[in-house]
Every structure is written in structure tokens, then in C-alpha cells.
Batch of 2 targets.
Target 1
Amino acid sequence: MHSPLVLVVLQLLASNCHSLPFFNGFYYDHTHPGNGTGNGNGEVHFNGVKLVVNTPEDALFAYRGGNVTLPCLYYYVPELYSTRRIRIKWSKLHKDNTKERDVLVAIGPRYRSFGEFRGRVHLRQTMAREASLVITDLKLEDYGKYKCEVIDGLEDESGIVELELRGVVFPYQPYGGRYQLNFHDAKKACEEQDAMLASFEQLFKAWEEGLDWCNAGWVLDGTVQYPITLPREPCGGKDISPGLRSYGERHKLLHRFDAFCFSSSLKGKVYYLNHPEKLNFEEAKAACQEDESTIAKVGQLFAAWRFLDLDRCDAGWLADASVRYPIAFPRLNCGPPEPGVRSFGFPDKTQSTYGVFCYKMS
Ligand SMILES: *[C@@H]1O[C@H](CO)[C@@H](O)[C@H](O)[C@H]1NC(C)=O
Ligand SMILES: *[C@@H]1O[C@H](CO)[C@@H](O)[C@H](O)[C@H]1NC(C)=O
């Protein structure tokens, strides 16, 4: 049998080519091989043993504010029964999966987390050869693809876990009406309403679930789209099949449209304030404060409607000075026959004609 020997020689040659002891962001210490089949040369002991990393194929779903475990297991073929010195690295893919951002790096029991994940991630290793990642207090931006990388000597294997947040997409026009927002304004407008600019995938999913909106809005990838479920003349044409109509990429500073925002469930609750009189906008804000809460943001109302079935057939002010009401169980005199958040747009702020939706952290 010559093949194992040939393999050993090739591996030694390959390792000599890496004149810098830096590889995948990890420092490789070749002088202290771990236990196993090693002969003292760091890489050679791995001859004939394959490292396999297992991650789930299906995406995981989670909620904002919740915790999630991204499973990752590894093993050796043939199985090794000794304890090995391995390094685990979790990173998040972004920009069409061409770039990575460090999330966590672990060597033995020590680990370090990075950037927006600092203090919110740790490893779960409840069984042997587990390298699962726990993310706590999930943020809207946490959705996406994560890479679990296990490094043992020169063997470096990885698997991908996809995390999706359960959420709701809503079209957004600011005070002042239609087509006021360039890309940067749109991002900011969503954030001000406790949401973020929706990704293309999120908008697509919302369309699949029935979203129909005849004004074009910015999406996170810099394109402008609108979702049509019932084709009609003023919305791209009657004879075109339902779908996302795209204006393609637009100039992020010069071109102005609406926005598609994405929100997920929230901590706390949104409620229609019981108040003896109808209110104008300033009175509405003050009334929530008196009730030790704040006037609800649009993203909060959508989240409460979508995830908690908030249902109220009374129109109320919201933080952006729009007036809306959420209907989870459609009925007579409460708008169209589909569930939804109904909008009165932006009425005169001085009119004492409406109630108010407040938001209380709990
Ligand atoms: C190999 O394992 C033994 C016992 O488990 C331990 O004492 C020793 O330090 C290990 N050697 C290395 C290089 O990790
Ligand atoms: C998430 O985990 C943290 C820390 O482990 C815990 O305090 C918190 O209650 C958990 N949150 C949920 C929603 O389970």
C-alpha cells in the first residue's frame, strides 16, 4: 500500500507552502500536535482521518428578542476516541455570501465574540463534538447565513446554518406622502418605526403571503420593487402575472420612493388607550405618557397585529402622526374582508378625532 505514504508527502509539501503560520484567521501551532494518531509533526497525524461537520439543511426560525441555538456537530471518520485540540469559528456571511464577519472564535473553553454579537453569543457543547452557537436577544439584523467552522490541525471543515426571523413586512410612506424617500431616508424611516428596511427575500415571502401594494418601495439591496397579488391596470398591467414588479437598482441619493419595512415580534405590548375623549396628535402623545407608556410606532403596531392578533376597530394616532387600526378578525364596518392594518394616512394633527395606540415595555 503506497497511497498513505504519498498522501503524507503531499501534505507536508502543502504545509511548507504556507510560509506564514496563518490560516483562515487562526494561528496554527504545528509544534504541539494533539492526541490521536499523531507522530509529532502536526499535520501528519491526520493522515487518513476525515473531519465531518454537520449542520441542518433547513432554515431555523426565531423571533426578535428571543434566543436561538444554531446546531453544529462534528465527527471523525474513522472515529477517534481521544480528546483533540480543535478550534471553532462561527462567522456570518453577508454581501451575497462573499464576505464574512466574525461572530465567535473558541479555543478549548475560551472564546471571544465580536462586533454586534459581543456578549450575546456563546457555544453550546452539551454533548461530545458539539459546536452549536447560541444567540440571545435576537435583533432584526441577525437573520442570514452563519458558518460553523471546525479546525483540527490542517483539517478545516465547515457547514452553513440559515437563520430566519419571523416577521411582518409593511409598506411605509412618511408624513408628506408618496415617493419622498431616497434609499438612506427609507432605511432611517423604517428604523424610526422600530423596523428595518426589508430584504428582497422578506418582501418576496410577504408577497407569497398575499401582500399587494401599488406603490414602489426601497428594498435593502438597493432595488425598488412592489408586490402585486391582483394584477390590474394602474399597477404594472392587467395581463402580467402576479409577482414582485421591479424597477431594478435605483440611485440611492437621487431617486425617491416609499419603503418596505420589516418588523418582528416585540417585548412589551401595544394597546388602544381607554380614554374618555378623542384626541389630537399632541394630546395623544401626552395621554400615553400619563399611562406610563409611549405612543406606539408603526412597526410595533404591525408586529402586535401579526403576532398577537391585536384587533381594534377604532382608529388611533401613532408616533409618526399617522392614524391606523389593526384588524385580525375582519368583520362588518371594519374595513376590507382581509385581516390587516388599516390606514387613515396622515390627518390634520390638530383635529381631536381619534384615539391612540400606546406601547409599554414589560
Ligand atoms: C494527551 O492526553 C494525555 C491524557 O489524556 C494528556 O496528559 C496529554 O497532555 C495529552 N497530550 C497532548 C499533547 O495534548
Ligand atoms: C435567553 O437567554 C437568556 C440568557 O441565557 C435568558 O436570561 C433569557 O430569559 C432567555 N430569553 C428567552 C426569551 O428565552
Note: Residues 3-17 form the longest helix (15 residues).
Target 2
Amino acid sequence: MEKRTIAIDCKFSRRDAYDALSMPIYHTAAYEFDNAAAMSDAFCGRVEVPDYSRVMNPTVKYFEDKVKAITKAANVVALNSGMAAISNTLLALASQGKNIVTSKHLFGNTYSLITKSLARFGVEVRLVDLTDLEAVEKTVDTNTCCLFLEIVTNPQMEVADLQAISNIIHKKNIPLVADSTIIPFTRFSAHTLGVDIEVVSSTKYVSGGATSLGGLIIDYGTLPEFSERIKNEMLFNFGAYMTPHVAYMQSLGLELLETRYAALSSNAQQLAEHLLTLSQIKRVNYNGLPDNPFHEIAKRQFNNTYGAMITIDLADEQSCYRFIDRLKLIRRATNLFDNKTLAIHPASTIFGSFTDDQRRSMDVLPTTIRLSIGLEAVEDIFDDIKQALQ
Ligand SMILES: *Cc1c(COP(=O)(O)O)cnc(C)c1O
């Protein structure tokens, strides 16, 4: 069955008491039992029924079931943000004395989580250029608990070779954890490329127009005990499970994901091509442009689709500020893959608390503006950019 069909027609795991056609929002903290034995069976995990909504809720489970059917994963857990998905995954894998191998090209909060928060608990971080396979091979060792990467880095747009990296680290029994937020999981199979655990900020494409924050841990079942640990330890002890109202919105967002993504990515491709014609723009960075250094690998890994994020470089930082201030249609906001087009100057915002040296080492340039392309008419987005550059 096609993924867009599954996203819409996935069945409830249990028939609703009133035969509701939409999954109801089960806004309840706890669940009642008929007798002591049934209660014990639920609490001890002998039957999979909800007992408390910190670890299971029917509305959230329906959203998880849809993602599981689409990705053919072994287990899917929905959390209350992308950062919750990433932090709970890394907390489940890491321990004192272990190391995480990753790149300096990371989402700002993920970088801080690994280099600051986890470091405080004695987890070592090893930063490596993930496009240099020899360096990757030399950096991992028997204490490496995982290699973490983003499938398309932001704002650099670097694309690592997932199959090649997984081949290297799997020989040493090291799992590959990938943040796939930038390309929807409906469009490519991360597991086929060697990814063991996929993490997603469903705040972005899935939520359906920035309705809510959410995160997904998509586990392909290659690591013994990982999902048990997420369910029996992380959800119970850290308490970051998704809430039912959010799951309702995200599930609805998922129903329209394929339809929205087709329009978003087509808008981004057309706009990237239009932007090449403007002399004030020194560089257009989009993997869908044929002369982009990561075009071929992105094309191969993600089945000819390149997402809806574009970065542009202007002459200097003042030009970036002036451009942002003059925008009339495009919104000055962070976030990605809203229905609205958004613009942000990453160096002074997302990476604003880093030092110049850190930003330079992360290839976050003062001349770069990040655009998240929305569903408006391409001509209207292009006109706004043109007038803001005058
Ligand atoms: C937004 C984002 C996150 C964090 O997700 P939240 O839902 O905001 O917590 C992590 N990784 C990437 C690549 C993102 O774009």
C-alpha cells in the first residue's frame, strides 16, 4: 500500500467504543481496570493496554502506529519535541566512559546537548568530518555507543554517505542514529541505507503547518533491548511522552504530509532556480541544484527529492539584516516547513550564543540567510525576495 494511503487509512488497534471515524482525543491521565489480575497484567507489560498516559495513550499510539506502518519500523515512540526524541535516544545509548561520534555540523541544541549536557555526565564527544570516511573509521572505537548524524545538515546542507558510514561502523557493532527531519520519512527508507535508529522533529513537516511540537524515535529493531529501554526506562523516568491533543494534530498533519511535501519541495526547487538569476545573491545553497556539491548523493539517497530549505548568501551581515527587515510576505521566524515561508539569519539567532570562532568552525557564516519555503505561490515569494534585496 502506498505511504499516503497508510497515512490516511491506517486502522485503530482497537475498535472505538462509539465507532468514531477520526481517532478521538483520549484526554485522560489514567485508565480503569476490571480486577486486580488485569491491573497486574497491564503494569507488568504482559498485555499491551494503557495504564497511565506518561507511557501510553490511545491517541498517541494511533499516531505511532501510522508512522510504524509507513516506515516498517520495529517500534515507534512519539515524544513532546524533536529534542526530546534526540535526548532520550542518546540517554538510552550512552553511559559514563562511552563516546558519541558526530559532526560539528549539527542543529544548535543537539550540539549543545552532546557537547555540554551529556559531557557533564562523563560522555565523551568526538567531532569528525563525516564526509571523510577514513577519519570516521579512525575515530570510532570499542567505547563508541553510536554515531549520530543529520541526513542534511542545517544550514550547511552537507549530505553524508549513509551506506558507506554504516558499513564502516557496523563492522564494529556501532549503531547509526540519524536525524532525518529535513527529508520526510515518507520519501526514502533510512533503514535501507543502514540507519538503525531514526529521530525526527515532527514539529516540522509532520505537524501540518507548525501546529505543535513533536518528536519521533523510529527504531528498526537492530539493537537488542533499545526499544524496551525507551519504553520501560526513558518514558517512565524522563516523562517526555507526547500528549493526546498534540498527537491528534500531528496525526492529521501526517495524513496530508505527502500532498503538502509535493508542493513545498516543488516550490523550493523552482525558487532556488529563480534565485540564481539575482545578482545581489552571492550563493544559493540547495541540494536540488545540479552544481551543488551534494546534489548527486542527495539525489541517490533521497530518491530525487531535496526538501524545502534553501540558504542564500549576501555580500555582508548588514545586507542580511536589511533584507530581513524589508520582507513583507515572508515571515521573520525560526522553524522549518511551516505552510508559510520563513526567513532567519542563523549566525545572530540560532547560533547567536556561540563565539565567532565556534561559528566559523561550524561553517555558520554571517552572510547566510536560511529560508524555509512554504506553500504560497512561488511568484509571490520570489517578488518579496526581489523587493527586499533592492
Ligand atoms: C527543529 C529541529 C530539531 C529540534 O526539534 P524540536 O521539535 O524543535 O525540539 C532537531 N533537529 C533538526 C534537524 C531540527 O530541524
Note: The CA atoms of residues 151 and 365 lie 20 Å apart.
